[in-house]
Amino acid sequence: MRGPEFPVHLHSTRFVFRDFIETDRAGFIACQMDERYRALYGHPDSAETRDRSNALFDRFLDWQHAQPRRNFQIGIFDRNSLDVPACAAAIHRPTVRRSASNSPPPIGAVTVPRSRQRP
């Protein structure tokens, strides 16, 4: 299998942010099967939950090979132990065009009330 065209790999003083690779599967599944995670999302400790977690991990690996790549699932690894304490996603969702008159501001945009704007 070919590697991703633009693999994500960033470092901070505490963490490594990178694409998942096959050897991360066991750590990812362990996080998904942790009782605290399952309680948060209401998943039982079952073979079905484990199978869904494996299928989800397969999807993340598949996303890396899409052309063009639009979806990213990044593992957030402890820099010293390389444990998987978390992961984050950026998922492309096609948007419906709206006219300018009824468009909401983009996510993350800051709107300033007219009373606070400079003249």
Question: Could you characterize the architecture of this molecule?
Answer:
- A four-stranded antiparallel beta sheet has the order 1-2-3-4, covered by helices on one side.
- α1 crosses α3 (47-63).
- The protein is an alpha+beta fold and 119 residues long.
- The relative contact order is 0.17.
- The protein is globular, with a radius of gyration of 19 Å.
- It has three helices and four strands, in the order ββαααββ.
Strand percent estimate: 15-25%
Strand order of the largest sheet: 1-2-3-4
Average pLDDT rating: 78
Helices and strands: which structural class?
A: alpha+beta
Short structural summary:
This protein has 119 residues and is an alpha+beta fold.
